[in-house]
Write a structure and sequence with these properties.
single chain, 360 residues, alpha+beta, Penicillin V Acylase, Chain A, nine-stranded mixed sheet, 8 helices, 19% helix
Length: 360
């Protein structure tokens, strides 16, 4: 791999072009290394796709990544996250750069297909060793890249996923998490999840956070350790107000993840704390539990760990993206800063470069 020349846009944010990469490299890396298990939220409405990527903690850089088309591959523009330390991001020399395309967390291609990955609680169901034994193995972190490269529609994306043997990352920072996806094109949207080794598709999905929606009609259908319930409700309530890119940003900001650590958040986001990784001494609690004093005390201890720390050193929204499918544009706010940048896939195709415009 040659010619990796990242350009700095903002603190912890760079742009980079990739002309080639090897899917086997991604499989090999994620066989031995954990992938991020982010929270994340996504909204689709009338050709607009909003997305908060909430894994970010520490000094890892984000990359706005442009991939040109080749004989088989669509061109695409997206955001890769949570891999390269910021002090290594500008040189392009990190040995991790070959993996950057497979950490694409959201993006759009020249066919107008948008895809993002969200973390999902699976502690009540178990992880996915594979969906289609004997077929092409594809780890969950690489699905967004695969969809952007080869899908011409939502239906194409689902077909591609069904033709692969999709599997969880063997190692994970949080044992009760894997991934699900929101995919959209100019005409439709769908959530893709994996349940009992099967691919489950829910067409017409408008909002996605971090719990299974396949087969869910009411709260009692949810898994006990579901999380992201409050963010889902916020985004669903504000959904009718989305008219354009600006109003989509206004909605997504209401679900920025740093609000998890503020007791002034009303209603408080209890479901962020009721996953299985919070099981300690006193016991467990779920979305069906009545909140007790020991649960409040556990939450207070979790919040206290981040007191006095900079935003970059706590869980927060590492990037907030809004894609306009018709225009094939990406607008992005990094690290809850409020600074907004705009990128055009069609411009990148025409010039071969990633042009960035600051939106005041």
């Amino acid at each position: 791999m040659v010619g990796i020349r990242p350009e700095k846009i903002d603190d912890y944010l760079y742009s980079v072009r990739f002309d080639e990469y090897d899917y086997d490299c991604g499989e090999e890396y994620f066989r031995d290394n954990p992938a991020p298990a982010g929270s994340c939220s996504a909204v689709y409405k009338n050709g607009l796709f909003g997305r908060n990527y909430d894994w970010a903690i520490g000094d890892k850089a984000d990359f706005v990544i442009y991939v040109p088309a080749d004989r088989y591959r669509h061109s695409s523009l997206g955001v890769s996250s949570s891999l390269i330390p910021s002090d290594e991001a500008g040189s392009g020399s990190s040995p991790l750069f070959p993996v950057v395309p497979f950490m694409t967390m959201d993006g759009i291609n020249d066919a107008g297909v948008v895809c993002c990955v969200n973390g999902i609680t699976v502690s009540d169901r178990g992880k996915t060793p594979g969906t289609n034994p004997g077929k092409k193995r594809l780890n969950m972190s690489s699905v967004v890249r695969y969809v952007l490269d080869y899908a011409g529609s939502v239906y194409d994306a689902i077909g591609l996923i069904n033709e692969c043997d999709i599997h969880s990352i063997p190692k994970s920072r949080l044992s009760g998490f894997e991934m699900h996806y929101l995919i959209a094109d100019p005409y439709r949207s769908a959530a893709v999840e994996f349940v009992d080794g099967k691919v489950c598709v829910t067409f017409g999905t408008r909002v996605l956070s971090n719990f299974h929606i396949s087969g869910v009609r009411k709260k009692s259908d949810l898994d006990p350790h579901s999380h992201g319930i409050e963010r889902y409700n916020i985004l669903s309530k504000g959904y009718p107000e989305v008219k354009d890119t600006d109003s989509m940003f206004s909605l997504m900001k209401q679900a920025w993840y740093s609000r998890t650590y503020s007791r002034s958040t009303d209603p408080f986001w209890y479901s962020e704390y009721c996953n299985d990784y919070t099981k300690k001494g006193e016991g467990d609690f779920t979305i069906f539990s009545e909140i007790e004093d020991w649960m409040e005390a556990r939450i207070d201890r979790a919040i206290a760990k981040f007191e006095g720390k900079e935003l970059i050193d706590k869980w927060h929204t590492g990037h907030c993206s809004v894609y306009d499918i018709g225009k094939k544009t990406l607008d992005l706010i990094p690290n809850e800063t409020g600074r907004r940048y705009s990128f055009s896939l069609e411009n990148a195709i025409a010039t071969g470069k990633i042009a960035c415009r600051r939106v005041e």
